[in-house]
Structure formats: C-alpha cells, structure tokens
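Sequence of HAT C-terminal dimerisation domain-containing protein (Coilia grayii).
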Amino acid sequence: MHSKVMMPLAKALDVLQSERMGFLGVWVPTISILLEKMEAKKQESQLHHCTPLIDEVIRGIKKRLEYIFEDPRLLKASAAHPMFRLAYIPSHKKAEVVSELKAEVHQLQTQSSSDVQTDGDNQDDGDAVMGFFPSRRLAIERNEVDIYLQSSETKRAHAFQNLPVMKKVFLKYNTGLPASAACERLFSVGKDIFRPKRNRLSDDTFEKLLLCRVNKHLLSG
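Predicted 3D structure, token representation.
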C-alpha cells in the first residue's frame, strides 16, 4: 500500500533528476501532474487507510512548491518548452504568460534590429534606399509566439525550425547548468595529478598524465 501511494512521488523525482529532462520548464508540469495523481490516489478504495499519508504528501508538496505556479520565470520556461506550451499553466496566468512571451520576442527582435542597423551604417546608398521599405520578415517574426503556441510539434529539433526568435527564448529559460557528474569522475581518477605539487602543469601535460592514468590497464597486458 505504502509503495502505491509513494509511486507518483518517486516517478516525479526521477523526472526532475533525469538528464534528458534537465529543463527549468519541466518543473511546473511535473509538480502539476504529481498533485493530480496524488489527488487521484485518494479516490482509490483500496488505499482508503492511506488517506492521511496522501494528505500529508500533498500538503508538503504545496507548502514547499506551490509558489512555482506563480513564478513568472518558471511559467515562461514551461510555456517555451514545446512538450508543454500552455498545457500546465494555471488558467488565470495564461494570458499573462503569453503577453510576457511576446514581450521577450519583441525585445530579442529589437536587439537583432539594432545589430542590423549598426551593420547597415557601412552599406552603400542603394541599401539605404531599400531600408526605406518596411521589412516583411519582422512582421512575420512578430507572430512567432502565436505560431509556436498553435503548433502541435513536441520535438525540440522540429518545433523551432522556422521560429528562430522563439528558439532563443527557449534557450534563455531552459538552458540548465551542466551536471557535475563528469567533473566528479574526472577528479576521482586524478589523484596525485591534482595535488598542490602538480599545480604548475601545462594543459597539455595534465591531459597526457590523466590519459595515461585512465588507460594504464592497456599497458598491463
């Protein structure tokens, strides 16, 4: 019984710790689904005696994490992820999140336009004359948020194919810090190489020593 109650929580933790789902935008959907599943557990007759435990789990989650459903950065990160978009954004927050996404896109477009303007200062008179006419590309880009939200494509590789500015928004809010596991493995094999007496090693020498240490088993044969 206890394992059935805690299963949704365990799976949610697996999702949040997964390297494949290491995006800030995963938090709101994961916690939202977890709360839904815990509420559903209360309706299962065979878990009737576990209701106090379920209530405590729900209470604990809300106490620690309910703020994420109001956090602008987390909501935008979720909306900018093609797997979720607005699906798990609270109803009273959807219009606000869409407005903020459009503001983000506009800001990035303005920056890009400024860069183009700077580059254009060195162009000839013909280019300057052509600059008199409004850019159709900017008009199209202003609709990127609407196009993105109406799309059903969930794979990141395809979702931003023709939406370069929305892709920048996704990267801005969903680029996480790299895992430390690789560094920990590196330092675990370094041993004497990382001691103070070796602190003047050049990069090349350090790399050679480390590779020799890691591959020393190849020499034993």
